[in-house]
Write a structure and sequence with these properties.
Layout (H helix, E strand, L loop, with lengths): L14 H23 L4 E4 L2 E3 L4 E4 L2 E5 L2 E5 L3 E4 L10 E24 L4 E21 L16 E9 L2 E7 L8 H22 L2 H12 L5 H18 L8 E4 L17 E2 L3 E2 L2 E7 L11 E4 L2 E4 L1 E9 L4 E4 L6 E10 L1 E7 L18 H5 L26 E6 L2 E6 L3 E22 L3 E12 L6 E9 L2 E13 L9 E11 L3 E9 L4 E6 L8 E4 L5 E4 L2 E3 L1 E8 L3 E10 L6 E9 L5 E8 L2 E4 L14 E9 L7 E3 L4 E7 L2 E5 L3 E17 L6 E9 L5 E3 L3 E7 L4 E25 L7 E10 L2
Antiparallel strand pairs: 1-4, 2-3, 3-6, 4-5, 7-8, 7-9, 9-10, 11-47, 12-13, 14-40, 15-16, 16-39, 17-33, 18-29, 19-23, 20-22, 20-35, 21-22, 23-28, 23-30, 24-27, 24-29, 24-33, 25-26, 25-28, 29-32, 30-31, 34-38, 35-39, 35-40, 36-37, 36-38, 41-46, 42-46, 42-47, 43-44, 43-46, 45-46
């Protein structure tokens, strides 16, 4: 002790002297603790465990703070049943702080008269104790909760993660735990043993390093070589070169070409990365809630806002007639284009993947990879350099990737990816015309001056190439039976609503094997087009002196904004993702929005808050909002559309196809890019599979991570040391998440065989 109280024989001791004895000892202990143990706030013991669905128990312990030791001798229990979150999660902090209190009240006699020795009893505190107090500080509820902020005088000893069902985890706080000297001594002993073993080797390391420096001067480092190999593997992938018989390769998981789809234990989705496949899924069609709703009109499965038919163009008057049958009888092959598609995806599984840019490489086909429906096989001759390329302003695929919202559209309203072939026989005449204004063609008027006793008429609306009709680009086709034709009066032929673009030339193509006569007009070029005669089924000869008499009737919409209620979305167990794929035409002057109702408020899918699907709602109201003008509106084809509702699993397992090396190797490095990966919720692991049937699994000897925070990603590298050299192997990648509402994906895999 720094100070001692002196007592003398026969001296009358004062109570203050006795208290000073304890004060001196306490001050010495405080100095020892502050100078040699810790001056900061640290705790010892206080083990906290979960002892019930909603309760915890904290054992007795000590708090060291500023050299003082505060003690709690009783257990602490807490029930969180009234503090559980409603939908998300919450973190509670168990905190401790010290106070000094006078305790142990007892009755003692106090002298009040020294001469008579009279005394009286008083109840007084016999101890002054340093008490460690425990309480709980609650955080705020959130999908991704954070620990609460506590006052500077409080020490956090543990964290409790709460969910709507109770306590999920209890974690001690290692940052404020008091280290024990015994453990430190053990660790120091291990260091001394290691030092004694490696000292002889370290003492010569300076000489060895100088020798190595001389030998390696001017050579590339292994790290640089590995980075070059990884970049070459990525370039090979972009160029479409195979990975076989090479020591490095890559996969960006845009297709399943390098995924072992025949492995029965495969459990993942390969879609712009390795993702969690659906645990529950429902596929249906877009449907209107009320088929009798007067706000819409459905023709042949195509839904448009309600409209009236109005005359927009008329060519006449009749000055002569034209016999169709006088021209050569041929078999005509017509190829009808179908409406292109729009795909909208919303939900927590749709994390933005950096590898979507690899669609631009030309080695992958984003159209067949994105717009496939019900197992369709798209044509393989898609030319990305012919005005259909990725982000091509001439009319190609336009993707939009935003966290939780993906949209893919094809600007061209009709495409040749999905077609219908027609074979019609007879003579064929066509009339081209210039369409001056966007619109939906609803009917064509033709005038027949003579009609044969029988014989149908095939009418097609086709695109023009170089100013003449192109039978390979039919956008509307209808057959009119003889009974429906009118003589010497306009025959108004209703066609499925067909979108015609402003400034483009189209043609009315008429084919029949009957001796029907059409009304024609001489003189001025009323339609800004040409009358064409098919001479051999392929060549069309123009007649610049005459035009066919015809009229065009377009849709005139009753309102500029129309809201149509659709059948609600429903998935047992809850909805985490919405995927809508439908034939759709949405001209630049219009907008088609799908909206869902969340908390009694309607939100467009592209603007729904990310927390909307917390709690996994099993039912969502859906509506479609059409915005345009009286002349132009968007349209969506309900028949054949696809609405997929899903909820992802909480684990995935991916297997690569066999990777063949240029030479046998036993040291292999695997680089992966994990995007939206959060260690608090997610895990990822990899194994190399070798041997017959690829059943021998090897785990990595080292795993390292490099964080890329600005891209919400980590680059994880695995180093494998196999027991023997192999010529080929498969790679297994596994992943988990603690909740279906917080997922991640693998965007890239690169493998490099290292020299032994």
């Amino acid at each position: 002790m720094e100070r001692k109280r002196i007592f003398y024989p026969d001296m009358d001791a004062d109570p203050a002297d006795m208290n000073s004895l304890q004060d001196y000892a306490q001050r010495s202990f405080d100095n020892i603790v502050a100078d040699t143990v810790t001056a900061e706030a640290r705790y010892a013991a206080f083990g906290t465990v979960k002892n019930g669905p909603t309760t915890i128990r904290t054992a007795p312990g000590q708090l060291y703070s500023g050299g003082k030791v505060y003690v709690r001798e009783a257990e602490y229990t807490r029930d969180f049943v009234s503090s559980l979150p409603v939908a998300g999660k919450k973190i509670a902090a168990i905190v401790v702080w010290g106070t000094e209190e006078e305790t142990s009240l007892a009755a003692r006699e106090f002298l009040i008269n020294e001469e008579t020795l009279e005394s009286e009893p008083k109840t007084v505190a016999m101890e002054r104790a340093r008490i460690a107090n425990i309480n709980v500080s609650m955080g705020t509820e959130a999908p991704d909760p954070t620990p609460p902020l506590v006052n500077a005088g409080l020490t956090i000893i543990a964290y409790v993660l709460l969910s709507p069902t109770g306590i999920e985890t209890v974690t001690m706080n290692p940052d404020t735990a008091l280290p024990q000297l015994g453990k430190i001594d053990t660790r120091l002993g291990e260091v001394e043993v290691w030092k004694a073993r490696v000292d002889p080797q370290i003492s010569t390391i300076k000489t060895d390093l100088a020798k190595l420096a001389n030998q390696t001067s001017g050579t590339a480092s292994q790290g640089m070589v590995l980075r070059m190999a990884a970049d070459i593997a990525r370039l090979k992938e972009k160029a479409g070169l195979p990975d076989n018989r090479i020591d490095y390769g890559a996969d960006h998981f845009l297709s399943t070409d390098e995924t072992d789809v025949n492995n029965p234990t495969l459990l993942c989705l390969v879609e712009e990365g390795i993702r969690f496949s659906a645990e529950a899924e429902h596929i249906g069609q877009l449907q209107v809630f009320d088929s009798y709703d007067p706000r819409h009109k459905i023709v042949g499965g195509l839904m448009l806002p309600a409209y009236d038919r109005v005359l927009r163009m008329e060519v006449g008057p009749r000055t002569a007639e034209l016999s169709i049958a006088q021209y050569q009888y041929q078999t005509h092959d017509l190829v009808q284009l179908m409406r292109s598609r729009t795909r909208i995806r919303y939900g927590t599984p749709y994390t933005v993947c950096s590898n979507s840019e690899w669609w631009q490489s030309g080695q992958y086909d984003p159209i067949s990879g994105i717009f496939t429906r019900n197992g369709e096989t798209f044509k393989a001759e898609w030319d990305v350099n012919a005005g259909w390329g990725f982000n091509d302003a001439a009319g190609g695929h336009w993707p939009m990737r935003v966290q939780q919202y993906w949209e893919d559209t094809v600007e061209e309203p009709y495409w040749d990816r999905v077609t219908i072939d027609h074979k019609v026989q007879g003579a064929q005449v066509s009339q081209t015309f210039l369409n001056a204004q966007d619109g939906w063609l609803d009917a064509i008027g033709l005038t027949f001056t003579r009609l044969a006793a029988e014989g149908a008429v095939h009418v097609a609306i086709v695109n023009c190439q170089s100013g003449q009709p192109d039978p390979k680009q039919v956008i509307a086709f209808i057959t009119v039976e003889r009974e429906a034709l009118r003589l010497n009066d306009e025959t108004q032929i209703a066609i499925p609503p067909t979108y015609l673009q402003a400034g483009k030339r189209y043609a009315i193509m008429i084919t029949t094997n009957a001796d029907h006569y059409l009304a024609i007009t001489d003189g001025g070029n009323f339609a800004q087009g040409t009358l064409f005669i098919s001479t051999d089924g392929a060549y069309h000869q123009g007649d610049l002196t005459r035009d066919m008499c015809f009229s065009l009737h377009f849709a005139q919409f009753r309102q500029a904004r129309v809201v149509i209620d659709m059948a609600p979305l429903e998935l047992s167990g809850g909805i985490a993702a919405i995927d809508i794929l439908a034939e759709c035409i949405e001209p630049a002057s219009t907008e088609l929005l799908y909206e869902v109702q969340v908390n009694s408020v309607w939100h467009p899918l592209r603007a729904v808050p990310q927390s909307a699907l917390i709690g996994l709602p099993p039912l969502l109201k859906l509506r479609a909002t059409f915005v345009g003008t009286s002349d132009m509106m968007p349209a969506v084809h309900l028949t054949g559309s696809q609405v997929k509702l899903s909820r992802p699993r909480t684990n995935f397992l991916h297997f690569s196809t066999p990777m063949t090396l240029a030479a046998p190797a036993k040291n292999i490095q695997i680089q992966t890019r994990l995007e939206y990966f959060e260690a608090a919720y997610h895990t990822s692991a990899a194994r190399i599979l070798t041997g017959a049937g690829y059943v021998t699994a090897t785990t990595p000897v080292a795993v390292s991570d490099v964080a890329i925070p600005e891209e919400r990603a980590i680059a994880r590298t695995y180093l494998f040391q196999l027991s023997e050299e192999v010529e080929d192997f498969e790679l297994e990648i596994a992943g988990t998440t603690t909740t279906a509402l917080k997922v991640w994906h693998v965007a890239e895999r690169v493998h490099i065989a290292l020299p032994s």
